[in-house]
């Protein structure tokens, strides 16, 4: 039984690794967070109602049209937040999903996050909040800022139950400011949207001299069958709500993000060890993971 489970897990990891043209080095992929979710993501990809490709036609997501039509209304609220310095990095290392992005200049303000409560969004962005609330397939949303020189390194998102929608609000309108998904680039433009599958390798850079603000949404992946859609919805509500992070005091912090604060403190010692001797660090990391894998198989 254990051997079967390990085989299914490894098959799922191979599926994630070989999906698309751009790949991480295999050892990195093997221990990447997207591999821990690989069996769930294999299920999502097998029963997905949309084709397996990096970019998807927006015509398949007509429910998002109110966002595009009201992009100037949404932009006005984003710019007000920007003036108030509310679009920012997490202040207490309690954003498990996006903590690694902050060191490269990326900032955010949550408007919606699955079943988590963000009273700050309703208070500060009432019109955008109401628009998002009227579209059930939008499970999470935020304003995301990428300043001049900002970048996001190549990565896969860990959960395939959603697709990613970006709507340009206040962008450089410049090809030097772009996102690359599986080797295909898209440059943001004011008032224009794009839908992509974030479980392909993607990265972004703002090589222009102007700031970039977008509306960033997680849209529930359409599934072929009602039962599969119900499974996806339950997993999203259970797993992703636990990763919620606050904009300010009074917003909900999920269990995963609360635990992440502890792991971040422990990570300081890990980073010191890595800086002291990178070879010893890699050997220790490999040994711990190999030991855990052996324990799962043989115990």
Automatic annotation (TrEMBL):
<dbReference type="InterPro" id="IPR027443">
    <property type="entry name" value="IPNS-like_sf"/>
</dbReference>
<keyword id="KW-0560">Oxidoreductase</keyword>
<dbReference type="InterPro" id="IPR047694">
    <property type="entry name" value="Lipid_A_LpxO-like"/>
</dbReference>
<dbReference type="InterPro" id="IPR051821">
    <property type="entry name" value="Asp/Asn_beta-hydroxylase"/>
</dbReference>
<dbReference type="GO" id="GO:0051213">
    <property type="term" value="F:dioxygenase activity"/>
</dbReference>
<keyword id="KW-0223">Dioxygenase</keyword>
<dbReference type="Pfam" id="PF05118">
    <property type="entry name" value="Asp_Arg_Hydrox"/>
</dbReference>
<protein>
    <submittedName>
        <fullName>Beta-hydroxylase</fullName>
    </submittedName>
</protein>
<feature type="domain" description="Aspartyl/asparaginy/proline hydroxylase">
    <location>
        <begin position="69"/>
        <end position="222"/>
    </location>
</feature>
<comment type="similarity">
    <text>Belongs to the aspartyl/asparaginyl beta-hydroxylase family.</text>
</comment>
<dbReference type="InterPro" id="IPR007803">
    <property type="entry name" value="Asp/Arg/Pro-Hydrxlase"/>
</dbReference>
């Amino acid at each position: 039984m254990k051997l079967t489970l390990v085989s299914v897990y490894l098959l799922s990891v191979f599926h994630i690794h070989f999906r698309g043209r751009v790949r991480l080095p295999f050892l990195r992929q093997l221990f990447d967070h997207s591999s821990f979710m690989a069996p769930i993501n294999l299920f999502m990809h097998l029963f997905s109602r949309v084709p397996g490709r990096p970019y998807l036609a927006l015509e398949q997501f007509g429910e998002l049209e109110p966002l595009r039509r009201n992009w100037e209304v949404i932009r006005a609220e984003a710019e007000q937040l920007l003036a108030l310095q509310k679009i920012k990095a997490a202040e207490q290392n309690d954003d498990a999903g996006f903590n690694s992005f902050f060191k490269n200049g990326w900032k955010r303000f949550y408007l919606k996050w699955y079943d988590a409560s963000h009273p700050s969004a309703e208070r500060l962005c009432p019109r955008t909040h109401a628009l998002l609330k009227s579209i059930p397939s939008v499970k999470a949303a935020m304003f995301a800022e990428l300043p001049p020189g900002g970048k996001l390194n190549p990565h896969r998102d860990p959960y395939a139950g959603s697709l990613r929608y970006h709507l340009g609000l206040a962008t450089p309108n410049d090809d030097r400011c772009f996102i690359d998904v599986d080797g295909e680039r898209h440059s943001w433009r004011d008032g224009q949207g794009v839908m992509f599958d974030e479980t392909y390798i993607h990265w972004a850079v703002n090589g222009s001299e102007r700031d970039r603000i977008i509306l960033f949404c997680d849209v529930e992946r359409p599934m072929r069958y009602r039962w599969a859609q119900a499974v996806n919805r339950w997993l999203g509500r259970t797993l992703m709500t636990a990763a919620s992070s606050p904009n300010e005091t009074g917003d909900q912090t999920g269990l995963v993000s609360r635990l992440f604060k502890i792991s971040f403190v422990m990570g300081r010692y890990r980073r010191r060890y890595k800086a002291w001797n990178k070879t010893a660090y890699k050997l220790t990391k490999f040994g711990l993971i190999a030991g855990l894998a052996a324990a799962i198989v043989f115990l």
